[in-house]
């Protein structure tokens, strides 16, 4: 029961399950399965071959898609409290994406068949999943727009502005490695470092100790 209570506490922290009573959280806990991922571990949907909802308990993951040349293209990043797989569990369509842990991470996975039973009992879950999916599509559309910027510097600045808005503050540490950020922005780490330095020289940001970045806006 101790394990279930710990899991219930973790599940209650997800916005997806707000409004679900403890009995409902217990039912969810009974079908949610822990998976620990070491940094670099990967979950590929087309290999696991079943739709599942993934809840990020702690750590950090990136969602990637392979390009036609076989290169990894990061689509977005997931942190504690994020949910992935809404479209798959609602439509049964497996996406050709993979999850890769960029840090040691713990996730909970709920198989679609188990989730369908829960949706019948708690219809608000279906509404919340749909809202999550709509929000993600809006965010991705916005990101695609600024990723089309011609220069790396513009793309980097747009990313930093978007991150500041998401975090609700202008001072932060980059939540992902420079290598992952460079791949996300379609460049290489060396160019990314030069563009950060250029933005600092222009007075648009200031870099501090331990990767601290202050946007001067």
From TrEMBL:
One of its GO terms (cellular component) is cytosol. GO terms for molecular function: DNA binding; DNA-binding transcription factor activity. This is CRP/FNR family transcriptional regulator. The keyword DNA-binding applies. Keywords: DNA-binding, Transcription, Transcription regulation. SMART domains: cNMP (SM00100), HTH_CRP (SM00419). The lineage of its organism: Bacteria, Bacillati, Bacillota, Bacilli, Lactobacillales. Residues 16-136 form the Cyclic nucleotide-binding domain. It comes from the Bacteria. Transmembrane segments: none annotated. Residues 150-217 form the HTH crp-type domain. The keyword Phosphoprotein does not apply.
């Amino acid at each position: 029961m101790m394990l279930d209570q710990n899991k219930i506490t973790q599940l209650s922290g997800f916005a997806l399950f707000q409004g679900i009573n403890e009995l409902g959280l217990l039912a969810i806990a009974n079908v949610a399965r822990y998976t620990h991922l070491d940094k670099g571990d990967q979950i590929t949907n087309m290999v696991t071959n079943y739709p599942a909802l993934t809840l990020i308990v702690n750590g950090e993951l990136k969602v990637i898609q392979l390009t036609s040349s076989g290169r990894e293209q990061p689509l977005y990043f997931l942190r504690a409290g994020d949910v992935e797989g809404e479209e798959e569990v609602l439509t049964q369509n497996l996406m050709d994406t993979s999850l890769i842990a960029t840090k040691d991470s713990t996730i909970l996975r709920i198989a679609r068949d188990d989730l369908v039973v829960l949706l019948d009992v708690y219809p608000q879950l279906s509404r919340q999943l749909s809202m999550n999916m709509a929000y993600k599509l809006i965010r991705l559309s916005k990101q695609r727009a600024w990723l089309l910027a011609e220069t790396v510097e513009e793309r980097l600045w747009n990313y930093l502005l978007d991150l500041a808005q998401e975090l609700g503050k202008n001072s932060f540490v980059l939540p992902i490695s420079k290598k992952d950020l460079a791949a996300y922005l379609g460049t290489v780490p060396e160019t990314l470092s030069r563009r950060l330095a250029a933005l600092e020289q222009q007075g648009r940001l200031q870099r501090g100790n331990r990767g601290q970045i202050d946007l001067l806006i």
